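Minutes, project check-in

Agenda point 3 was the complex the collaborators sent over. CS summarized: two entities, 1022 residues total, and the question is how they sit relative to each other. Sequences were read into the notes so everyone works from the same version.
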Amino acid sequence: MVAVKVEGLVKRYGQVVAVKGVSFEIAEGEIFGLLGPNGAGKTTTVECIEGLRVPDSGTIQVFGLNPFANSNSVKELIGVQIQVTALPAKIRVKEALDLFGSFYRRCRSTDELLKWSGLEEMANRLYDTLSGGQKQRLALALALVNDPKLVILDEPTSGLDAHSRRQLHELILKLKSEGKTVLLTTHYIEEAERLCDRVAIMDEGKIIALDTPQNLIAQSGELSRVEVTTDKFLPSELFAQLPAVAMVDCPSDDRDRKTAYLWTSDLSKTVPELLELLKSHQATLQNLFVARPTLEDVFIRLTGRKFD
Amino acid sequence: MLIAALWRNTLVNVRITFRDRQALFWSVAFPLGFAFLFAAIFGKGAVQERWSIVAQMVAIAIAANGIFNAATPLVSMRELKILRRYKVTPIPLTLLLLSFVLSQLLVTILTIALVIATMAAILKLPLTVNLAQLAVVAVSGIFAMQSLGLIIGSTASSTRSAVPIAELLFMPMILLSGATIPEYFIPASLQKVGEFLPLTHLIRGLKAIVVGKGWDAAVLPTIALLATAAFGFWFAVALFRWEPEEKLPTQVKLKAAFALMLVLAFPKISDATLSFLLKPRGTTVIYAGKLWDGKSDFVREQVTVFVRNGQIAQIRNGFVKAPKFARIIEAKQLTVLPGLGDAHVHIGSDGSFGLNFQVGESEQEAMERRLRGYLRCGVTMVKSCGDNIDQILRVRDRERQGLLTSPRLVIVGPTFTAPKGHPTELFFWAKDISQYVRQVDKPDEAVAQLEDLAKSVDGIKAVYGKGFGWLTYPRMKREVLAALIEKAHSLGLKITIHTDSAEDVQTAVELGADGIEHGSFVDPIDEATLNLMAQRKTVFVPTLSVVEGMRKLIAGENFDNEPFVREVVPESVRKSLDEAFWVAMMRQRAKRELWLWEERLKVNMENVRRAHQIGMLIVCGTDSGNMVTFHGPSVLRELKLLVKVGLNPVDALKAATSNCAQWLGLNAGEIAEGKLADMIAVEGDPTKDIEALAKLRWVMKGGQILWSEKATKE
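CS then shared the predicted structure for the full assembly.
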């Protein structure tokens, strides 16, 4: 079943067109990502779906319902973590969950949500004493008070440290295992790659690519990069002979740097042969780093710009 | 679910307020501090006055809490984008706003409870106030103020812009409502602005309750407040913005402007509606054991009086069966007679020297208090013989719309007199003396001023006299008086003349005056003049009471024991007459003159006796508002003096009923078919013993019982 269907969505702010005809569908049970740099129109798109903004044209359906005509029914079905969720400074964690729960017909118990989000020990803390990660986990828990079928997360890990981000990622994956549909926006490449079943890459108000992260990368024809460091300098011609290697960079003028950079279209063919090569030249492997192409590479390829 | 959400959000808001020290300071500590301050500064005076101060503080606390504390949380939630989080939930906007109102309601109730408790403790106030009624008015006020605050809260995009807007709303209210500055110091034009401010209504309502005016006086302000609350809330919902960037459609702005106009026009609209609603309807049946009709020389027994639409519809012998749905008043053990009248009063003063109002009330409220005092004494018609004309006209208009618990009110304009003539010496303090006195030296200027006044007043009064004893002043030129009398008559107005001596009376009567106020306290009015008065049916209002009052004051006699005085006259007024240092000085000085005052009283009583013998129309007037001549109780004093002069009680009563109504131009003063249903009931028979008037049981005006002993006991 289709959870969300967006067709030809356009939204203007005065003279600026923030979203220029965006269309996509989200299947029930998947984690769908909107990836793009700041200002790409991701937030505007999800805010239209949440009912926070009225689109200038296009149609939106959430579980077959129009979020403006059936605003309250849609609001009952979705859980929203808006970008930069703020709450009154002097509200307690438990109170916030109780309060927002009371706004819905169906609500999950506060204790359960506290446990789910790992905030049990924070239950009686005031909002302004929470850390950034704790605030985001609370925001996520708030998005779940009505046990929604669709959870919309707008930049859920923005500005968090690596540890907090990992905690949040685990929670989001837990959502999927609970059968929820998740729509998430992010400008973190690895977040999209790690969490999303499908990703729509947005730039300047348009979707420029939409597929599973693996397919996006594969289809982009990008090369994997291999960095190899040995105790002995080897000329670049040796590396160039390896199978599937398209390009080699071996800074020969610097005899102290014994690192070579290879680009290959097929790691599985290149790496075993590389190790054989080192052995045959009695060179000892000191470091080996392999980088597969990322969605960032896809973005750069599609737009000719760096992702920021 | 909705109720649960409302309740939970309300509770959370209250808790948040109590956790936020800054919010707590402004909502609770600040008003409490103010209360301490006011209690310390104004904590003197009678119980009612002290309660008035409490009412003022409560009103200020409600206004401050409502306007500032309803606005700021919403605005800061918008500014910090907290409101967006609410917007993505299904909670209805009205519910969200309502929860803010309710939470502030709870905080404010706590605050005012603390204010009242603190002030009551400091000021040692007995709990004489009906707290339930006070709560109704206060809660209405809280809702009204909250809704005004909400409008700001709904629209302002940042706290920085919200605070000045709130100040803009708050400051005029504090300054113009009479909350801090007495109405006396506020120009009339600005007072009109005050009429439109909800705080004015709140203070009026709260004061009505705390000074014991009763629920009736608080109804209109309460309705005005509730309407402000409803409109304001609607307004806030219509204008609400979730986010600072949101813009409002023009249609919404127009609707909002319309709503605001309705809110502002409300006092006027509600006045008109209420006077329509309060108009007496239906039939009232009175079973009178005895009935004196105001004209006859005898008393009828066992009579049924039918009252319909405020008028006497029918009078029948015996106790006739009442129609269905009629209201029945049993007065089978009582004597029913027409309501009394006082044809010479000054509503603007209390009967002491000092302020013309008590601390904690405005001048207008003081006037209304005195008018209620008249009703308490069985007086249903009075003639104001010189008061601040703008103020008294406002009061009169409210009375005629049926919005005031007051006797019927007839107004003569400011008193015409010679330059520096009487009573200019009494109004040296007035900002605009022409409100009280018109000093005219030439016939044409006198005529021009009279023409202008004729548009609003019911009659004209002029002073023609030179004073007596140590108080003398210039007398008006004869030709000026002649011109005034002629002009008044040509405009169809009655003109009455204040006189000091027999010579003054003679001139005034010869020139065609319709009435003589005071007569002469210094010499006998000559026979020819008296005959001319009888022939021309010139009315004589001797005001013996005011001289008796002076005599009592100088003699140091107790005046508290006159009937009604303790009930009607504020304690502070009575105290000031005994305690003021200058009263003691005057007594010292005037003890030598005591015989003179006794003599003056005797002289005029003799004038009255002769006038009565000739068959002149004598009308009861007291000159109340002068020292020791109090509004209401003095009518009985005057009637007793008339009886002392030699009038039988029936003739004395006529002076206060049918004669008075005729002189005032009112279709009252008699119990006869077609007359206005202004009646009183007393125990005993006042046509035999005038003192029976002190045993008043109820007072009816226009078919409505405005005071009754039973209601007081309940």
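Noted in discussion: Chain B touches chain A at residues 1, 4-5, 8-9, 12, 15-16, 19-20, 73, 77, 80-82, 84-91 (CB under 8 Å).
Follow-up: revisit at the next meeting once the mutant set is ready.
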